């Protein structure tokens, strides 16, 4: 994803908090090393750290700063995500100091004094610059130098960050970060504003009414450090993309077209992934912003086009090594065409040239092959008089929906009133428009009829549905545009078309691709039809896409039943572990890790609950993963217990493979609740859902709001949790890194009922 947003910024309108989410995405990509390409000639960040250490040692020796106590070592297991090889993880206290506090009596009257309200949240714009004599300040201040990065440590002001343009003083609720050695302050500022760092701070803020980041937690924070040269490239790209975001804010009238540009930029980046892992990460990151991106018909159309592109690149379905390779398929097609020529059923074609290396547009799976369009089909065109076929169907470019392969009109030759010669076509052929601006109009017909003379009837020697999808994909259409620019008349001739290069998969895989594309296209159509329910549909489609990406080259991917079995394998022996605990932990794993397993979580008495859990348990029993039993307790309540099945290790292995390094986080989550009561799990899961729902709705709730929402707007049974208990659990969640982002499935309200 090195070129994710190159040349384009997510220009978005019409979606709640859309631009804000996109700004966050830009910063997140920046601190992960995904926004600009790495340059192997850059001095690595490890050398930068050495120079920072030398600078600190010099300042200590000169008595300008105090020697700090040692910071904890950074282990590979403890880092939040993987960085490029030229980057390094560092602790904030290793590369900065936090300034010094000055008595108010020592501050000059004309000195600049900065308060939190002087900084605009999110944008980092300085709203005003006041002098000490204008402030009437009663408290001591932190001193800062020009170039220091000023960070508001008090929630809800965590995204107020500024680079000082002159010396001054600030409230002690602002931390002045002074970077040692060569360091770009604007990169530092962007990193502090990134979703990654905000998650860290939210998880470690203390205090109920005015939570803030503690100094020691700030010193221990892990900071992603790129080479100095790359810092400059990142800042330039961030500035460029943020400026485009600013223009979107100022020009809401252009929001729809800008949104299309953004979606296309993000989707196009998927085809640039370096490998399967990078591709999977790209899909994951895209899916986290799915409800922000795909909120308009043009954005859904762009998604459809990228699905076609991924399909013809071999990235949408896994390859099967038992499939007959495409090279053998081409040999059989050549023999079939030779036989048809001998029988006089098709004309002998001009021999097409071999594919040169520089003609291959991208790398294909090993079982695929590049070939020319004319090698896998025959372009036909028998001109006839329309008046001789008045009752046949007539197809013209205006009857076909652009880019979808759908007919929009059902008319006869007589109804159409055509007079000039038309081409005869037959059921099973593809009818393709060869004239601009209808060059992305093609349809697979299941009837005989006539078509405009500006259309080609095409016989496919591969799967005709797959060939149609190739014709509608960017691989084909880009070659159409190139060929079109070479001719005076805006029509595509047969010779040019026959020489186009196409990626061809094995025949069996063609069928799988068609089935998967049709499935995902159907989801896209549902999304268009139900924009009012956009969040739920987006979630379903995102899950399907993520599943394809995460499976990659694996034989199978993990499903919700596998994750369920994984939890059962760890916790079934515990007496306190029943269905309520099972559902709550499954919800937390799903939401915290962004798995996209379920999207029907409801606000029940013991919610969040997705009722598909019952079908999951039934399937688990049938597959021998685990079984359930019910006992009646002395209280009269029923208790569900779980019993590990003989096949549970299969699901454990599938889940572990699907998660990769994220398995450690799932195991950590499970360990947090080992031996805890069901009420503990219910409190945490419900708080997580309440918090996530608020963030998804654009709110920035404080603890008081979350507690009130928990007790008042879920179910009366939730009132048994006191505000004090819930406040302690919120603190516990932050301490243990269970802080939502607003990107998980949103819960749905319905009539309450008793569960378990």
UniProtKB/TrEMBL annotation:
<keyword id="KW-0378">Hydrolase</keyword>
<dbReference type="Pfam" id="PF01420">
    <property type="entry name" value="Methylase_S"/>
</dbReference>
<protein>
    <submittedName>
        <fullName>Restriction endonuclease S subunit</fullName>
    </submittedName>
</protein>
<dbReference type="GO" id="GO:0004519">
    <property type="term" value="F:endonuclease activity"/>
</dbReference>
<dbReference type="GO" id="GO:0009307">
    <property type="term" value="P:DNA restriction-modification system"/>
</dbReference>
<keyword id="KW-0255">Endonuclease</keyword>
<dbReference type="InterPro" id="IPR000055">
    <property type="entry name" value="Restrct_endonuc_typeI_TRD"/>
</dbReference>
<comment type="similarity">
    <text>Belongs to the type-I restriction system S methylase family.</text>
</comment>
<dbReference type="InterPro" id="IPR051212">
    <property type="entry name" value="Type-I_RE_S_subunit"/>
</dbReference>
<keyword id="KW-0680">Restriction system</keyword>
<dbReference type="InterPro" id="IPR044946">
    <property type="entry name" value="Restrct_endonuc_typeI_TRD_sf"/>
</dbReference>
<keyword id="KW-0540">Nuclease</keyword>
<dbReference type="GO" id="GO:0003677">
    <property type="term" value="F:DNA binding"/>
</dbReference>
<keyword id="KW-0238">DNA-binding</keyword>
């Amino acid at each position: 994803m090195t070129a994710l947003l190159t040349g384009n910024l997510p220009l978005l309108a019409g979606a709640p908090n859309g631009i804000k989410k996109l700004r966050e995405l830009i910063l997140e990509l920046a601190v992960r090393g995904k926004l600009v390409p790495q340059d192997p000639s850059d001095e690595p960040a490890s050398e930068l750290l050495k120079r920072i250490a030398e600078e600190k040692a010099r300042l200590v020796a000169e008595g300008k700063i105090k020697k700090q106590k040692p910071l904890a070592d950074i282990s590979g297991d403890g880092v939040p995500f993987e960085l490029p090889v030229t980057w390094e993880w560092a602790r904030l206290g290793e590369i900065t100091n936090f300034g010094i506090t000055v008595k108010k009596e020592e501050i000059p009257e004309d000195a600049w004094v900065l308060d939190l309200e002087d900084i605009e949240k999110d944008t980092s714009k300085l709203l005003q610059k006041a002098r000490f004599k204008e402030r009437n300040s009663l408290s001591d201040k932190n001193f800062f130098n020009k170039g220091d990065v000023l960070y508001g440590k008090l929630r809800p002001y965590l995204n107020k960050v500024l680079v000082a343009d002159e010396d001054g003083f600030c409230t002690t609720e602002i931390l002045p970060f002074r970077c040692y050695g060569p360091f770009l302050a604007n990169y530092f500022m962007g990193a502090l504003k990134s979703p990654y760092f905000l998650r860290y701070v939210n998880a470690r803020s203390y205090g109920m009414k005015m939570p803030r980041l503690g100094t020691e937690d700030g010193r221990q924070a892990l900071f992603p450090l790129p080479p100095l040269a790359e810092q400059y490239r990142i800042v330039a790209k961030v500035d460029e993309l943020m400026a485009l975001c600013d223009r979107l804010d100022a020009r809401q009238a252009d929001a729809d077209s800008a949104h299309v540009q953004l979606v296309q930029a993000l989707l196009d980046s998927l085809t640039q992934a370096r490998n399967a892992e990078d591709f999977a990460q790209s899909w994951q990151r895209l899916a986290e912003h799915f409800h922000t991106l795909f909120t308009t018909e043009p954005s859904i159309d762009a998604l459809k086009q990228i699905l076609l592109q991924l399909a013809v690149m071999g990235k949408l379905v896994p390859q099967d090594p038992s499939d007959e390779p495409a090279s053998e398929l081409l040999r059989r097609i050549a023999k079939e065409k030779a036989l048809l020529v001998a029988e006089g059923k098709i004309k002998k074609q001009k021999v097409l040239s071999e594919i040169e290396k520089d003609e291959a547009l991208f790398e294909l799976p090993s079982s695929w092959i590049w070939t020319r369009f004319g090698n896998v089909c025959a372009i036909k065109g028998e001109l006839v008089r329309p008046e001789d076929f008045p009752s046949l169907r007539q197809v013209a470019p205006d009857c076909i929906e652009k880019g979808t392969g759908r007919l929009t009109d059902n008319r006869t030759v007589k109804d159409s009133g055509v007079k000039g010669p038309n081409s005869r076509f037959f059921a099973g052929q593809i009818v393709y428009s060869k004239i601009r601006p209808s060059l992305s109009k093609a349809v697979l017909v299941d009837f005989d009829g006539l078509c405009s003379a500006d259309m080609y009837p095409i016989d496919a020697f591969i799967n005709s549905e797959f060939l149609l999808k190739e014709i509608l994909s960017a691989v084909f259409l880009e070659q159409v545009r190139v060929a079109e620019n070479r001719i005076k008349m805006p029509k595509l001739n047969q010779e040019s078309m026959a020489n186009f290069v196409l990626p061809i998969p094995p025949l069996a895989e063609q069928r799988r691709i068609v089935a998967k594309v049709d499935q995902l296209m159907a989801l896209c159509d549902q999304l268009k039809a139900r924009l009012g329910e956009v969040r739920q549909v987006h979630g379903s489609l995102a899950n399907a896409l993520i599943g394809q990406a995460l499976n990659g080259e694996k034989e199978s991917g993990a499903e919700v039943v596998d994750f369920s079995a994984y939890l059962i394998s760890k916790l079934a022996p515990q007496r306190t572990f029943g269905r309520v605990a099972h559902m709550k932990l499954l919800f937390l794993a799903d939401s915290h890790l962004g798995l996209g397993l379920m999207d029907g979580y409801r606000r029940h008495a013991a919610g969040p609950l997705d009722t598909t859990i019952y079908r999951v348990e039934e399937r688990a029993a049938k597959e021998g993963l685990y079984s359930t039993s019910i006992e009646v307790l002395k209280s009269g309540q029923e208790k569900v217990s779980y019993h590990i099945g003989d096949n549970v290790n299969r699901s454990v292995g599938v889940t572990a493979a699907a998660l990769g390094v994220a398995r450690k986080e799932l195991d950590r989550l499970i360990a947090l609740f080992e031996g805890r009561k069901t009420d503990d799990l219910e409190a945490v899961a419900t708080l997580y859902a309440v918090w996530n729902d608020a963030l998804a709705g654009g709110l920035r709730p404080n603890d008081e709001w979350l507690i009130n929402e928990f007790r008042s707007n879920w179910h009366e049974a939730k009132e048994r949790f006191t505000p004090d208990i819930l406040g302690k659990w919120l603190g516990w969640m932050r301490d243990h890194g269970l802080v939502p982002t607003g990107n998980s499935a949103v819960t749905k309200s319905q009539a309450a009922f008793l569960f378990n």
